[in-house]
Write a structure and sequence with these properties.
The protein has nine helices and four strands; from the N terminus they run βαβαββααααααα. The chain is α+β, with helices and mostly antiparallel strands and about 210 residues long. The protein folds into two domains: about 80 residues, Glutaredoxin (3-Layer(aba) Sandwich), CATH 3.40.30.10; about 120 residues, Glutathione S-transferase Yfyf (Class Pi), Chain A, domain 2 (Up-down Bundle), CATH 1.20.1050. The protein has a four-stranded mixed β-sheet, with helices on one face. Strand 1, helix 1 and strand 2 form a beta-alpha-beta unit.
Length: about 210
């Protein structure tokens, strides 16, 4: 039995779900709301002592940290491989995963999407200084990912990889902010890649039931 713990609006939970879907695996998503007023339960902290999402359990084996979950999902189960066999292509995939974790999540999701889109849904005012300060790094992220794209519908060419699973949820939110949409217009390869990922059944099947916060 495969069990994933987390909220469906989380980009990291969706990344793990995309890998599971692309592998064609059955799994259960057990809701965990890290933003609940009471916090996460002691039971969940036994799975992930840092209280972050997602966590993962397969036949009693527990993992946390999305990059570890992604690689385990690809390597432990049958289905199409989501990691390139060539050493250099696999290194580029790992580089993209690191860029997303180290820079894109904070900049593109929290400093731009959350401020411009999620925060203003209830009438709150976006922090324009925070958004403006993030744009330089956002440009670097977009231009770097554009440069790393291989010819084909996916980041690394003709086949989906863990890089696609990890990038799509973050850049999907980023594109909903006017600043993100503007920067993606200047990166046609990345914009076309995102359109392709949005059209995949795996992406549609992992759409959150509620808007991400």
């Amino acid at each position: 039995m495969i069990e994933l713990f987390g909220a469906d609006y989380s980009v990291y939970v969706r990344s793990a779900r995309l890998a599971l879907e692309e592998k064609g695996l059955d799994y259960t998503l057990s809701p965990i709301d890290v933003f609940a007023p009471e916090g996460v339960s002691e039971d969940y902290l036994a799975l992930n002592p840092f209280g972050k999402i997602p966590a993962f359990r397969h036949d009693g084996f527990v993992l946390f940290e999305t990059s570890a979950i992604l690689r385990y999902v690809d390597e432990a189960f049958d289905g199409p491989s989501l990691q390139p066999s060539a050493v250099r292509e696999r290194a580029v995939m790992n580089q993209i995963l690191s860029i997303l974790d180290s820079f894109a999540y904070r900049t593109c999701v929290w400093e731009i999407y959350v401020e411009r889109v999620a925060k203003t849904r209830d009438g709150s005012t976006a922090d324009e200084v925070r958004i403006s300060s993030a744009l330089g790094e956002a440009r670097t992220i977009v231009s770097t990912l554009e440069r790393l794209l291989e010819p084909g519908p996916f980041m690394l060419g003709s086949r989906p990889s863990l890089a696609d699973c990890h990038a799509a949820p973050m850049l999907h939110l980023f594109a909903q902010a006017e600043e993100g949409a503007m920067l993606l217009k200047r990166a046609p390869g990345l914009a076309n890649w995102l359109d392709n990922m949005r059209s995949r059944q795996s992406f549609q099947d992992t759409a959150p039931r509620q808007s991400p916060e």
